């Protein structure tokens, strides 16, 4: 499950206040059995990402429709996916040096493996924007993997579903992005 988080770090972050859900999509970095993230202080959910409040997270890996036509055996249509659901408690870290280093570390992680951009501590915009960003750390209390990958099929059908998941995700993202920009 850690590999899903590390490969697909954009989390759906869900908090609840007065029975009202607050949902934000944020990249989170797994580090020392915790998740580290940052949020714009003007986001209403920022107030809920501190004081050991509870938070629910969803990390989404690849997913796609699986047609029975890809199988060598008789099957029905299905949807395959990889998800990780987490629950934890969150606390803010108000130390400016920690925030700055965390932003540098996150950028380094997300720029891998080519590191075409390196965020330097002396970057002129970094210090200007620190007061608008809040860092938080999530202690994970519960993990749940949701891996539906045609595991109940024959080996050749499992492989066909794996190849379809790869093909569909490469094709769908290319076609989709062509339509929106």
Automatic annotation (TrEMBL):
Alphabetized Gene3D superfamilies for the sequence: Electron Transport, Fmn-binding Protein, Chain A
**Pfam family name, one:** FMN_bind_2
Q: What is this protein called?
A: PaiB family negative transcriptional regulator
Q: Which organism is it from?
A: Winogradskyella epiphytica
Q: What is the lineage of its organism?
A: Bacteria, Pseudomonadati, Bacteroidota, Flavobacteriia, Flavobacteriales
């Amino acid at each position: 499950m850690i590999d899903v988080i590390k490969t697909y770090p954009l989390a759906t972050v869900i908090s609840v206040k007065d029975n009202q859900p607050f949902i934000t999509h944020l990249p989170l970095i797994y580090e020392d059995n915790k998740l580290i993230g940052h949020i714009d202080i003007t986001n209403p959910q920022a107030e809920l990402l501190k004081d050991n409040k509870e938070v629910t997270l969803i990390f989404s890996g690849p997913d796609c429709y699986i047609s029975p036509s890809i199988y060598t055996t008789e099957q029905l249509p299905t949807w395959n996916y990889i998800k990780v659901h987490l629950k934890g408690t969150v606390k803010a870290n108000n130390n400016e040096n920690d925030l700055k280093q965390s932003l540098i570390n996150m950028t380094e992680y997300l720029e891998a493996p080519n590191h075409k951009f390196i965020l330097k501590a002396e970057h002129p915009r970094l210090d200007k924007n620190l007061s608008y960003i809040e860092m938080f750390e999530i202690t994970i209390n519960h993990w749940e993997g949701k891996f539906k990958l045609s595991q109940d099929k024959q080996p050749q059908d499992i492989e066909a579903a794996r190849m379809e998941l790869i093909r569909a995700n490469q094709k769908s993202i290319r076609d989709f992005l062509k339509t929106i920009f």
